[in-house]
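Message: I would love a firmer grasp of how sequence relates to backbone shape in proteins. Thank you; the sequence and its tokens follow:
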Amino acid sequence: MMRIFAGMAAALCASTALAGGPVAQTAAPDAVQTVTAMADRQLEDEIIYFVLPDRFENGDPKNDRGGIKGGPLQHGFDPAHKGFYHGGDIKGLTAKLDYIQGMGVTAIWFAPIFKNKPVQGKPGEESAGYHGYWVTDFTQVDPHFGTNDEFKAFVDAAHARGMKVYMDIITNHTADVIDYVEGAATGYAYRSKGDYPFSRKGGPDGAIINEGFAGDDNADPANWARLTDPAFAYTPFVREAEKNVKVPAWLNDITLYHNRGDSHWVGESSVYGDFVGLDDLATENPRVVAGMIAIFGSWIDDFGIDGFRIDTAKHVNPEFWQAFVPAMLARAEARGIGHFHIFGEIAFEEPTATLAAQVMAESGLPYALDMGFAKAAQMVASGKSPPRLMAEFLQQDAIYPGGATTALGLPTFLGNHDFGRFSMFVREMSGSDEPDTLLSRVKLGHAMMFLLRGVPTVYYGDEQGFISDGNDQLAREDMFPSVTAVYNDNKLIGTDATTAQSNFDTAHPLYRLIGDLSAARTASLALRRGLSTVRAFEESAPGLLAVERHDPESGQRVLTLFNTGETPLSRNVEVSYRAVGVTPLVGPCPSALAAPGAVTITLPAFGFAACILETED
């Protein structure tokens, strides 16, 4: 009899590490072998670390002000203010690659690094572009972060370690440069295509303009050449000092923007409205399509990056993505980049796959950030909802384009820079901030992210016990010593440290856990590429969730187990009848089958496990 032992040697090492030992550091492999292995690695094999460069490490204080004279309202640097630049940069990120790789990370995704408008906002409400989403120059690294050469050095250094680099890109909008003559009087309210058609100035009774334009659903360049007057809804203008601020130069043409006022996030305005005042590009226009393909294709060609996270993807018309995605995959293939990862931000806050699957199907986006997983994990790990919620969410995998195999490439996460940190959600949803319990629940959530399907994505600082006070600016703490009071008064999880100190502690219990879970996942094809069969779940209260992962190609099977309750549990759980034995990979696993097709499992409060199911070949 021949049995399948799913990465047994590595599995036993991972099991030992999870029992309390540190993850072993191995010598760097040959550079050529490393790059070859990286190119061959499938999307499902990655472990992603998402970081805001400005908040990670300050490698060069000389670039803190971006070479701009004046005060914070000119250069944007004010480390005491949560909404301004704090000094982190590409050199700092490069210097900390050891720390990042020590968690088992294989891909680094960072917030946009393109040159931004340093400061924008109404008087008294200003903030800075430290986050990277107010782009003026899509061809240049923001001087606050460094130079294009420094970014190339970062990419090369990551690749030499076998780590991929994912860029966060924006095609929906630019910085807020365009204003409207009527804006102050109207509050920049959205003006619809029905009330303000392209053919009339200021409404149906206005003067005829753009004669012969046949609508924005006609992609013929000759049609768009007839859209010469952008004053159909508002009268847009750009102040003299900013008329040529955008790069490439075609972005300064105001006829290439929607110019309809602020989005209210539903219906037509969701695609055609300005994103909180940011200039909304007319992505139906073939000039914009071609221009964006050229911009981001050059970052692939010149820097050899390995993937894109696409900001505000659902706020762009589907036809744009149907042209953009194939063009980017072709550029990556021509550059010799294997398994180029493209995933869109399709924002919602419900534990469902429906909206993401719909947008992916309409747009041809291959993957999306798994917002539904994040919400389900928050609710289940906190005890707010029973495991049934996660079980039913996983059973929706079939609705993605391509079915359940597509779900394997969705980046899963627990919290982020927009919504807030996972630990905050757990604290709020559980109604308790008792330190040991909170740490246990946060560990449980990370185990769900690493042991269930999808590509685990760690938000920087979570591995150091960061706990936000809210979303957006309140969830973007500094890893280097912070002088931001609203961050420094937080009691971090699993440590006595605060954000006033440097937080790169490789002995932190969450850093160690993530490293151990990464090792276990890397050891098992079933954890990386296995389809999900829900075996058991508690229906109406906290308790057991059991999911069997099966990789059809190798035949490997792993049973993943989670106890979301405050008390230990023991249960009989169904497994595949092909199983003939059990070997521990993570946590407390049975030593043998209880009977053909069943195991008896025991888990402590908030416990988790992953058990290799040995099968006959």
About this structure: Residues 286-303 form the longest helix (18 residues).
